[in-house]
Amino acid sequence: MIHRRHIQREVVAASLLILAGFIALFGFFDLLGELRDVGKGSYRLTQAVLYTLLILPGRIYELMPVAVLIGTLYALSTLARHSEITVLRASGLSTWRLLVVLFRAAAWFALAAFLIGEVVAPASEQAAKTLRVKAISGVVAQDFSSGLWVKDGPNFVNVKQVMPDGELRGVRIYQFDPELRLVAVSDAETGTYLDGGNPDGNWRLDQVVSTRFEGERATVDKRPELFWRSALSPEILTVLLVDPDRMSVLSLVTYIRHQAENKLRTDAYEIALWKKLAYPFASLVMVALALPFGYTHSRVSGVALKLFGGVMLGVFFHMLNGLFSSLGVINSWPPLASAFAPTILFMFAAGAMLWWVERR
Asked: Structure pTM?
């Protein structure tokens, strides 16, 4: 029991230390990236710092498996260098029992990753985007249950939904005169941003129904297409356009159901859903991958080499996750296979390495 607590304490402490270092490093670079926008609108240094802090939970979620891998490598290498692993094995601690001990330590990180990815990261990312857009654009932009509301000069615009390709759905424009009297309300089914620009406007609205108020009279005008110039831009739309990997499981399930009811493709969102369920288990895979390295005695230079190898393995795992997600969408692979493939591949690699170490 004492040796289990000792190993788990070493692994958890080393992983937390590595994770803290990663957070500090990535937070610093994120802040440097925000400095170029400081001074635009009302965006100030304090808001840039707050924005950086708000996106850190997402960084923690992404980096946790890598931190667990490197932390476990460091902890096991240190134990091996002090011959503690050798003593434990001579005392009857088998490889599989040691793996169970490591799994128990990694389970805390798996639980933390799930909670951060479900509860903290989606809300903080949304708050960060809203803060940044409101400060830089200088318009009223807020994500309510009714959609995005934007002040466009004397007018107000409501957008119900932003699709992954940037298309607007359910656009309603409230037009006011200089005395702030409502003069017209226009509804459009869809809106498309024109990258090249257009002399008549930077948005093309389709299936537009406009109701104009003149005294006590109201006239209705229907058009299949209307060009509209607005302060609304793709940057502002990022408040609603949430990356599927940043959505919670509940949000993904709801959106997948909505897409299916409208007979639209759901591949990207189904893969993101299964990735959300698979990602916490990556911490368990990482400790299994690190265990074979703990059976070798190392000098300080050897430990540094293992840590470098751990960083490379972590980066490779992260890249493989993104690669399989993209290939799954392009080739219409089963979402479950696309999401779990990197984790399963790394688990097989860990099993093969453990088998090879046992054979020796």
From this structure: 0.76
